Amino acid sequence: MKVRLKxxxxxxxxxxxxFHIYETPDLNPNMSFLEMLDVINExxxxxxxxxxxxxxxxxxxICGTCSLxxxxxxxxxxxxxxxxxxxxxxxxxxxxxxxxxxxxxxxPLIKDLVVSxxxxxxxxxxxxxxxxxxxSPPDANAILVAKADSDLAMDAAQCIGCGACVAACRNASxxxxxxxxxxxxxLLPQGQPERYTRVQNMVEAMDAAGFGNCSVTGACEAVCPxxxxxxxxxxxxxxxxxxxxxxxxxxxxGGGAG
Amino acid sequence: xxxxQRVWQSSLGKKYLMALTGAAxxxxxxxxxxxxxxxxxxxQAINRYGHFLxxxxxxxxxxxxxxxxxxxxxxxxxxxxxxxxxxxRPVAYAKVRAHGATAASRTMIWSGLIILTxxxxxxxxxxxxxxxxxxxxxxxxxLRDEEGRHDIFAMIVMGFQKWPVSLFYFVAVGLLCTHLGHxxxxxxxxxxxxxxxxxxRIAGFARAASVLLFLGYASIPAAVLGGFGxxxxxxxxxxxxxRDSAAPPDQNRMVPIGVTNAAGKEK
Lengths: 258, 267
Fold this sequence. Notes:
The complex is a heterodimer. In chain A, 34% of the residues lie in helices and 10% in strands. By secondary structure, chain A is of the alpha+beta class. At the A-B interface, helix 6, helix 7 and helix 8 of A face helix 1, helix 2, helix 4 and helix 8 of B.
């Protein structure tokens, strides 16, 4: 099969970008989308042209590095998979495929299809640590966790931080990502001591990064390669409201240790 | 930092404000519909209700001020949110898709703005009773029933007998219901009162509430356009004619002369 690609090319954040059209050679339909881009890049390199820059790493759907908006949908046509697990058999011979970078103010473009998702790291860092008993291994099941809670926490923990939610949201909002990160610890007993300071700090870091607000359209969960539910956003909204109502904790009096 | 400042500055806080003011306005819209539906109980019922509200300023004014505050806050926060949302994506996609987002959810600001335009018209039409906006050139507040109360029944019937007024009403109420179809669910989402169990229940409630509101509101102009209330206006006209033959026209009469002529032209 052969396809025609319309790819966003931009030298760097300072220069203007535009779409370039590339015709692929004959492709194996079982190639992944990224392998197809590799083939084009080999061709470009042979011709002495600049290859297309795109993010990729594990290529097995668990690292969250690959991105791309393929024909208007982050991570391509299928639900619940990342770009690296999107295969050429999902397209028809002769299709024109538009490939764009994730677009958001908080995700500044670096080159071609590569954007900086550093804002996500900043949000995670704002979440801080959880207090755990370091030292000898604890007894198994010393802390009981309800099955329903552990399942829900695992659903949230599936988030690979790829940023597709931001890319799909018409407001470029990062709520789904932040809510997943807030919830997976907030649901477990180990996450309770810092639960409310964590949600407050992460939401404030999110706002400071310039993401948009939630309009509850559900586009984020529809494109999420891990199918994370927007119910987590409701959970984050609840935790943040409780945090605001609780107010800041009392400052320790005096200058004692700790 | 104090609580209000935090609520205002945070993206989630602004959504709380949208949800709380939206919930208050939703409750008003339900109450207002129930008040309006008394029109089907006849002139006595709705005129008594209107008279009760007008003569109870200790209920009327706090409600008006509260509603105005909710509308104002809902609008100001909406504009702030939209401005932030637009700024969050400076470069648009070449190919845009909705990803399952409903049309209602993507057009909340537009349905809201059209509803606002309608509300302003509706207030000029029926609350301030501006003669220039009802198509008769008549001040509706001069309509009086036999007990001297403001004849709200006649005002509603005359108002909706003008089809452009009814059409605007249908459009606005339709948009209100699409706005609420998305808004009611979002209210619970924004306040965090939703999970996998309550999500479907809330979605069902939102659908049912918005359809019932549409039917409730639209039934009134639909009934009027179908001839409802015509008899009451006939009766008014007959009384006015009897009176006119007995005495010369007088502007301070309970039923103004203008009503007779204007309503007569409608038939």
